[in-house]
Specification:
Elements lengths: L1 E5 L5 H19 L4 E4 L3 H8 L5 H9 L2 E4 L17 H8 L4 E7 L13 E7 L15 E6 L2 E5 L4 H15 L6 E6 L7 H14 L5 E6 H10 L6 E4 L1 H15 L8 E3 L4 E4 L17 H13 L3 H16 L14 H13 L2
Parallel strand pairs: 1-2, 1-3, 3-12, 5-10, 8-9, 8-10
Antiparallel strand pairs: 4-5, 4-11, 6-7, 11-12
Length: 349
């Protein structure tokens, strides 16, 4: 299996290094044979190549069996005309990554703000909505027709809505609860969310064995806090999915634990849910579980289930003991020591 490693900005290089160590440990013990390639994106690429994501990196991502993408500081980049492209957004477009799969699952021993256990997945449409900028094929974006007036465009298509609904129902069919909730705001955005819902309903009709409901986004946020067990698979549009998945992950124990996989018809990119955290970069304080868990999702997607199981089991074991957690979770281990501990657990599995 050939994987492309893109460390990114801030804490990205540290958690990418930890993730590579864990991937290699799992592959040695459980397969598959891995070929890892590394390339620069973000500020490192900007200083060397004049762009935050060179074309050679895009081509390498297209040729790889998967990509491990570290966090990027795109909000701090220079304008696009000066090379400051968002690597995450570019890869989503160029690789056709229409689905962002974001599980939120609590660990019994890890403190969390929500007393109830959390075990759900947000299936987020990844190419449309408000987040699609004018430099992306999906269209949309923000602009100012005159000073003092800013407009944002939201693009929702029937094809994109049906495709993400199909991904959500296919995932729900593999989970015991067999439930899908479509989250929307069709009472206000009647045309765009109305179109989204009509396509999800059509897909739901093809899966009568799966319970289906529709929930307004504001109600969904409240219900997540009150009773996260209410949800199993949530399917929703781009911005709502981004917000609700972060909420669910915080309720489950924090964004440092939140895995994420971007999927298309042919390509897959593992990506931590959180940002680049430049304030703690280089201090060996970053929790690498989000990117490690994302890489495990990538392995599973590519058929390496034994290696993925070993990684996830090692993470679960490490999190049960405060002494073997990272400092953000009240533990004593830095990024490198935590990765080393996971590698030892995997070698014993």
């Amino acid at each position: 299996m050939r994987l492309l490693i893109l460390p990114g900005d801030g804490i990205g290089p540290e958690i990418a290094e930890a993730t590579v160590a864990v991937l290699e440990a799992a592959a040695r013990r459980h397969g598959p044979a891995l070929t890892l390639e590394h390339a620069e994106i973000g500020f490192a690429a900007l200083s060397r190549a004049g762009t935050t994501i060179p074309e050679a990196v895009i081509l390498a991502a297209q040729a790889a069996d998967g990509v491990v993408l570290g966090p990027v500081s795109h909000n701090a980049y220079p304008p696009v005309a000066e090379g400051g492209r968002n690597p995450s957004g570019v890869l989503r477009r160029e690789l056709g990554l229409y689905a962002n799969i974001r599980p939120a699952r609590s660990h019994p021993a890890v403190p969390r703000p929500c007393a109830a256990p959390v075990d759900l997945v947000v299936v987020r449409e990844n190419l449309e909505g408000f987040y699609a900028d004018r430099n992306m094929a999906a269209g949309g974006g923000e602009f100012m027709p005159e000073p003092g007036i800013a407009l944002a465009l939201r693009k929702i298509t029937a094809a994109g809505s049906r495709r993400i609904a199909q991904a959500a129902f296919a995932l729900a069919a593999t989970r015991p609860a067999l439930r899908v909730a479509a989250v929307h705001k069709a009472n206000v955005m009647r045309m765009s969310d109305g179109l989204f819902l009509s396509e999800v309903r059509a897909v739901a009709a093809d899966h009568p064995q799966i319970a289906y409901e529709e929930v307004l986004v504001d109600a969904a946020a409240a219900l997540l806090v009150r009773d996260p067990a209410r949800f199993d698979v949530i399917v929703t549009t781009n911005m709502f999915g981004d917000i609700l998945s972060d909420l669910a992950s915080e309720l489950a124990g924090g964004l440092g634990l939140a895995a994420s996989l971007n999927l298309g018809e042919r390509h897959a990119v593992a990506q931590a849910q959180h940002g680049s955290a430049p304030d703690i970069a280089g201090q060996d304080r970053a929790n690498p579980v989000s990117l490690i868990g994302s890489a495990a999702m990538l392995l599973r997607h590519r058929g390496a289930g034994a290696a993925a199981d070993a990684i996830e089991a090692a993470v679960a074991r490490a999190l049960t003991n405060p002494a073997t957690r990272t400092k953000d979770l009240g533990g004593a281990l830095g990024t490198r020591a935590f990765a080393d501990h996971l590698c030892r657990l995997i070698s014993e599995s």
